[in-house]
Design brief:
- The structure is a single chain.
- This protein starts with a helix and ends with a strand.
- The chain has three domains: 53-226, no CATH class; 235-380, TATA-Binding Protein (2-Layer Sandwich); 384-459.
- The strands form three sheets. The chain has a 15-stranded mixed β-sheet that branches. An eight-stranded mixed β-sheet has the order 2-1-4-6-7-8-3-5, sandwiched between helices.
- It has helices at 2-29, 53-56, 79-87, 103-112, 126-132, 181-192, 243-250, 301-314, 393-402; strands at residues 61-66, 71-74, 92-98, 114-125, 134-135, 145-154, 159-166, 171-177, 198-203, 220-225, 229-240, 258-261, 267-270, 275-279, 284-288, 322-329, 335-343, 346-350, 359-365, 368-375, 377-390, 411-422, 426-437, 442-446, 457-459.
- With 460 residues, the chain is of the alpha+beta class.
- The model is unreliable at 33-47 and 208-215 (pLDDT under 50).
- It holds the Pfam family YycH.
- Residues 7-441 form the Regulatory protein YycH domain.
- It comes from Brevibacillus reuszeri.
Amino acid sequence: MKRMLEPAKTVLLNLLVLASFCLTAMLWTNQPKFQFIQPAQYTESKPVQEKQLEQLVTPESVVFHYGEERHTKAVSTDAPYSMIVREMPKWIFLDFTPFMISNEKWGEIAREKMGLEVRFRSTIPLSIIGRLVTFRDEYDNRMKGIDRLWLYYEKDEDIVYALFLSTEEGRMMRSRTSISPKDLRDSYLAAGSPMPEQIMKIVRPDRNYSALEGAAPFWSIYYLPKNQGRMQQFRYSYVPVSNERLMEAYFIDQSLVRQIMERDKTVIFTDGSRSIQLRSDQKAITFTDPAYQVRAQELSDQEKVQGAVTFINKHLGWLDDFHFEKIKKSYNDKDLITFRQYLGAYPFVSLNGSTLIDTIQITSEAGQVSTMSRSLVDLDRYISNKEWTVMSGPELYQMIRDKKLADTERITNAYLAYQTDVVDDYVDLMPIWVVELANQPTMYIPANTNQGGGKVNGLE
């Protein structure tokens, strides 16, 4: 038995060695068929229109002061406004100082001195203003921003001074300018002379500054047209933004995106990180990106707004004509940045929970966009228009008094705008007066002179 066992072991060992050689040869001569994994297909966003920050920060109006309580106003559709905006990069400001003036001096500058007032809809950070004009010296960094730049001629010194005014902060500073009295008088004021005459309205502060000798009040001022004007009521068709364009604009790898339907018919597109909430009844979206990257250095307001502009440029772009409106802090210390849509010189206002096509609103943290709300309505083709005769300032005030809508002494601002009304296949733009009141809801009043008993909207 032992004699047979040893030869068997030898034979088995030889077979194993032979099998090992055969397998080695097979592995050596036969390569596996590799399956190459295709890289993720990144889709480049296709913005409709890109804009630079300077294109989005524009004055709301330019007011020309001629003395003897004569004032005119130009808006963005007027040639004198365009001329002033073209001239602004040439303006040089130097020798900045904090400035305090009495009621008497205010009245002299506002009512009697030749001047020019560049007005913004809300507070613009000074670092952004510095991109529209030229600062030669350091300014008072305690002022965060301004809503008015007021040039005035001081005859005794033969100098054109500039006042930088912040209604929000109740502060001002003064500087010398490179503007010659001749340019102010013969160029700027001459151009503005044919513009519509305005009534200056002074917003009285809560404190009675006039009773305080040598006090330094801050005059908040707005203007109303002395005479009736003309505006068009428009109807436009629009093109809704498709889901495909949304996917291209907001998601890097579309193959990862899944769709979720909520009970209220809200549709959510998400790739597991970013998401878009689509409210079809309002034709608007809310984009959310929870990713948060801590920045080592504090960003300026200019850098924050620039970051928002860059984000919109790369994600669907500017569907229509928008302008920067404001930046402010939220309750949780995030930055809220708003851009408002315009048609010509007039801002859009959406009321009563209708489709919100008037603004793009961004929330950013350390300069990174975390949420954005915007409309999906892209105005397309003009359909029709109707000319309106618009109430003058005195007529507006008289109507408010006659209908006992508000105490006109409480009005802090009044301006013309377009109320938007989005229906199935078109958008109506109706001229309205927006009347802001101290500590009361804003009123929205149809602007035509024959509106009679038309409905007045009041919203917070």
